[in-house]
Amino acid sequence: MNCLGEERLILLADGLAPEPDEADHLGGCSRCADALQGFRDANALVAEFLPPVPSAEVDDGLSFGPYTGCREIACGAMSRVYRGRDAEGSEVAVKVCRDSALLDSFSNEVKMLQRCAAAGVPGVITLLDARLEHLPAFIVTPYCPLGTLSRQTQEKRVDDELVLGVASGLAETLAALAELGIVHGDLKASNILLDHAGRPCLADLGGARRVEAPGQSSTLSHKGPGHMSLISMSPEQARGQELSPASDIFSLGVILYQLATDRHPFAGGTSWEMASRILTETPADPRPLLAPRFRGCFAELLEACLAKDPSLRPAAAALVEEFLKIPEKPVNPPASSASLVEPKAPAKTKTRKLLMITLITVPLVAALFHFATPAETAKPASSNGAKTVTTQASSSSISTSTNNGETTIVCNGKEVWKGPTSNQVKSQAISRNGETFTAAFDGDKVIWESAEGAGAKVQNALKDQVAVHADVDKKMAEAKQRLAESEAELKKKIEELKKN
């Protein structure tokens, strides 16, 4: 999927629920996610300085049976989800079927939820009500104000404690499902809700299936990639093969890898290229991107969960025990030099002219970063000794320094990567597809390369986007000039008033 346009990002920042493919893209594309956050920051600035305008009309929302005041909060290929209230006034989520042809999936979800409730499976959404006899058919579950795990990852970097809580919670849920012989088949961040305490709650069991016996393959397999989201698809799912609980373990590995590193293990390129990576490639070593407490047992579990062969993946019950071995977070971690500098709080604007200029420039800056900033690939890895090497190639000046096992890479005066390396790091100019750029090596492994290494096709596309938005800097300069003139005029009038 291509990057989202500016108008679409503005709508999403205003509260529009993203489509499933958009949510998946935002989870894997840091540039679109950063641009969306920029527009949300602009909206927050507006809310801070300008009071909301009361609506002349009150929208009572939709009603589904006894559930009233329903307003849409999410939309997928099979259903729309509404936030409403029951007869007692409690908030609920109403999931409405979009097409009568999909009623079988709704019926299956009801059966699976009932079976899980009867068996006391932890971490599965509770079924409150179901009305499938007449259209519109719908099912009712508790409303989770924290939303989906996908939403949390889009809005901020996930805390280590949440990563560990999701890991152990989902492993426990999958272990209980495996005992019942149930395969979820579509495990992904957008299908995981967070309850009031931040605990994971598995939802969307419409595609779940029973297997003949725990540990065996499903005779009612999900054929082809159409049913399941590509972003967390297992290799056997991509091949259209029968599924087993091990398929859910692979999807769990994808979710945890992205949560802990802020990167998808198979991200990049088109959907077909991602499918090819899932089938053939091994994800990059996550350790350099992980918190120190996750670089041991947790990293090994990630690699095991993402094994291509289902028989090599650990069982969910074993994962529950292994996650308990992960070290606790230090109560008082040592403060870094950066943490000793207290950031300055932004001063509130005193004039309306300054406010309006700010409201104009913030979205422009977000758009500029979205369309004009080349992405640099950072693939880190750890080292001993102390040495600094500077290399000049193309338009990038690179220096690498290694000290006490930590290597820092600086490009054009800006730190672009830091982490442990296993060998003496060196940087040199290399060529690819007719382009010369700079790369840093940990032994024979490339751990970082400058933006020029993205290839001619990507660079030309970036140049086109930069050309389209080349007037952003000019507009910002004009806005600053108008601000300066307005402030000068205001001071002049104040002096005149004082004289009178």
Q: Report how far the terminal alpha carbons are from each other.
A: 64 Å
The overall number of domains is 5
Our Rg estimate from Cα atoms comes to: 26 Å
Give the tally of β-strands. 17
Total of DSSP H or I helical runs spanning 4+ residues: 14
Residue fraction in strands? 15-25%
Mean pLDDT: 75
Largest sheet: 6 strands, antiparallel
- The CATH topology of the largest domain, please? Transferase(Phosphotransferase), domain 1
Could you say which overall geometry the principal axes of the C-alpha atoms support? Answer: globular
* The CATH architecture of the largest domain: Orthogonal Bundle
Bin the helical content: 25-40%
Order the strands across the largest sheet as they lie in space: 1-2-3-4-6-5
Determine the structural class based on helices, strands and strand pairing. Answer: alpha+beta
Quick one: CATH superfamily of the largest domain? Transferase(Phosphotransferase) domain 1
The low-confidence parts are 49-58, 214-227, 331-362, 364-387, 454-466
Tell me the name of the CATH class of the largest domain. Answer: Mainly Alpha
Description:
This protein folds into 5 domains: 6-17 and 26-49, no CATH class; 62-142, Phosphorylase Kinase, domain 1 (2-Layer Sandwich), CATH 3.30.200; 149-218 and 227-323, Transferase(Phosphotransferase), domain 1; 387-466, no CATH class; 474-500. A 6-stranded antiparallel beta sheet has the order 1-2-3-4-6-5, with helices on one face. The protein has a 4-stranded antiparallel beta sheet with strand order 11-12-13-14, with no helix packed on it. Strands 15-16-17 form a 3-stranded antiparallel beta sheet, with no helix packed on it. It is α+β, with helices and mostly antiparallel strands and 500 residues long. The chain has helices spanning 6-13, 20-28, 30-49, 103-119, 149-155, 160-180, 235-238, 245-261, 271-280, 297-305, 316-323, 352-372, 456-468, 472-499; strands spanning 62-64, 67-75, 79-85, 91-97, 129-131, 138-142, 182-183, 192-194, 200-202, 209-210, 387-393, 396-403, 406-411, 414-420, 425-432, 435-442, 445-449. Helix content is 38%, strand content 19%. A hairpin with a 2-residue loop joins strand 11 and strand 12 (396-403). The protein contains 14 helices and 17 strands.
